[in-house]
Amino acid sequence: MLTPDQLAEIDAARATPRPTLRAVSEGMEAHLYRAHPVLDHGFIRVIDYMGDDAAIVQAARVSYGAGTKHVQNDEGLIRYLMRHWHSTPFEMCEVKLHVKLPVFVARQWIRHRTANVNEYSARYSILDREFYIPAPEQLAAQSTVNNQGRGEVLTGEEAARVLDLLKSDANRAYDHYEAMLSQDGQQGLARELARMNLPANIYTQWYWKVDLHNLFHFLRLRADAHAQYEIRVYAEAIAACVKDWVPLAFAAFEDYRMGGVTLSGKAIAVLKRRLAGEAVTQEASGMSKGEWREFVEVWG
Known about the structure:
It catalyses: dUMP + (6R)-5,10-methylene-5,6,7,8-tetrahydrofolate + NADPH + H(+) = dTMP + (6S)-5,6,7,8-tetrahydrofolate + NADP(+). By secondary structure, the protein is of the alpha+beta class. It has helices spanning 4-14, 26-29, 53-61, 71-83, 103-109, 156-180, 191-194, 212-222, 229-245, 247-258, 265-275, 282-285, 289-299; strands spanning 35-38, 42-50, 94-102, 116-119, 140-142, 150-153, 203-211. It has a five-stranded antiparallel beta sheet with strand order 1-2-3-7-4. It has a two-stranded antiparallel ribbon with strand order 5-6. Helix 9 (229-245) crosses helix 10 (247-258). The two termini are 44 Å apart.
């Protein structure tokens, strides 16, 4: 987590607010700079943000000042924009986050290429001995139905065996990393080379800046129940901040994206046939087994 010096720096920053003419979200101000713990050593922090709900409707109407006369009108327009997949008005809002996360989570995260990223450099600095070690309830075998998911939780001796391997391998790799570094009078390896021996569960940090449209896309995928747990908890922590930042936009996002379902043409046809009283099977639906399974999960 953060060091005492870093926490003191955050307290000092929050103790000296400054007047501004820019749009301010009171909900986001409450999160600004503060670290929200994630996993065993990670966190997310809001470093800066731009815009609020009013900025979205202002951009949509290309208007001045507050952008609208009534909050109800703002909400209706934002829901319309979300419902009809408009993107640019939501791009008027941006947020910059400081994130501490395991490297294997970062490799998933970086696939969202519509953001600006600057990562802690292990070429210049020595990484800390901090590794993500899953809690016992997160140790699970491979799913038998999902090639990229988890199945039954490990218990007893098997859980203990796996935990021991994770801890011992991580510490052994870091011991060798330290032993290889050019320091303490030995020639050793440069940091940029020695780092290649580190495990994927070591923690890194980065600044990540993204607009609200692309952040919603990130949250739709990574805050979903089917997302990998280790990135999902980061997405959930970010979502809690976004909900306070742009409550109207986030409510529309929850309704139309997180709570909504996109139907294929085949799925619509099956629903129409069902409403007409026909009993439709997977074989008669024209869907693959995977599509049918997902359809049945929602519609029964």
